[in-house]
């Protein structure tokens, strides 16, 4: 391979590293600009999952459903229920599969529990939990039912820990960009400078390699 070819490849490599670096900066700016749109997409996704994909009941043998297990875990750990609150389940596939007149208004994981098994939640007081869900009013507290929606709990979690998230993101970006990409970019520029210098000092080198 000739020296001019090596120079061309290094130049392409340096350009590629620079494009990746610029793309990451643009991505960060776009996330900051469109964060409200991202929130709307999150609400839509969560609503869709509650309405159509959460479907574990005592009468449905689907306790390994990934969406169901994820929601059970989230509702248990964040102490929340539904996307925006307990009423979100009333028009869901899950609710339509519950036995008629069963008095079940929300999944067991929406209740205050006495265990921590997402596949088999055990309410502290099942009857009162369901009564509170049926009589639910916005912002009313309950000793046996999680009354806040999981979307609001996720926003609260993100706001509470935003500086930790920002620190982690900046740290990861620093490792990836500063330590690797910028060093690689500088190294490739140095190599191109070195090759250009050699081409100037030994213009006959490429001709001999081509022969």
UniProtKB/TrEMBL annotation:
<keyword id="KW-1133">Transmembrane helix</keyword>
<keyword id="KW-0472">Membrane</keyword>
<feature type="transmembrane region" description="Helical">
    <location>
        <begin position="163"/>
        <end position="187"/>
    </location>
</feature>
<protein>
    <submittedName>
        <fullName>Uncharacterized protein</fullName>
    </submittedName>
</protein>
<feature type="transmembrane region" description="Helical">
    <location>
        <begin position="12"/>
        <end position="34"/>
    </location>
</feature>
<keyword id="KW-0812">Transmembrane</keyword>
<dbReference type="InterPro" id="IPR008952">
    <property type="entry name" value="Tetraspanin_EC2_sf"/>
</dbReference>
<dbReference type="Pfam" id="PF00335">
    <property type="entry name" value="Tetraspanin"/>
</dbReference>
<dbReference type="InterPro" id="IPR018499">
    <property type="entry name" value="Tetraspanin/Peripherin"/>
</dbReference>
<dbReference type="GO" id="GO:0005886">
    <property type="term" value="C:plasma membrane"/>
</dbReference>
């Amino acid at each position: 391979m000739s020296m001019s070819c090596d120079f061309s490849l290094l130049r392409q490599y340096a350009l590629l590293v620079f494009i990746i670096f610029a793309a990451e900066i643009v991505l960060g700016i776009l996330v900051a600009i469109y964060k409200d749109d991202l929130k709307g997409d999150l609400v839509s996704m969560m609503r869709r999952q509650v309405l159509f994909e959460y479907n574990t009941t005592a009468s449905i043998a689907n306790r390994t459903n990934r969406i169901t297990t994820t929601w059970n875990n989230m509702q248990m750990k964040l102490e929340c229920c539904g996307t925006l609150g307990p009423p979100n389940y009333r028009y869901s596939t899950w609710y339509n599969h519950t036995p008629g007149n069963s008095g079940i208004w929300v999944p067991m994981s929406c209740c205050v529990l006495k265990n921590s098994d997402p596949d088999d939640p055990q309410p502290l007081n099942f009857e009162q939990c369901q009564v509170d869900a049926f009589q639910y009013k916005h912002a009313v507290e309950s000793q046996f039912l999680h009354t806040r929606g999981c979307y609001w709990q996720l926003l609260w979690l993100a706001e509470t820990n935003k500086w930790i998230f920002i620190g982690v993101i900046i740290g990861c970006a620093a490792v990836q960009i500063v330590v690797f990409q910028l060093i690689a970019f500088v190294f490739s520029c140095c190599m191109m400078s070195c090759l250009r210098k050699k081409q100037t000092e030994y213009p006959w080198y490429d001709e001999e390699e081509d022969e």
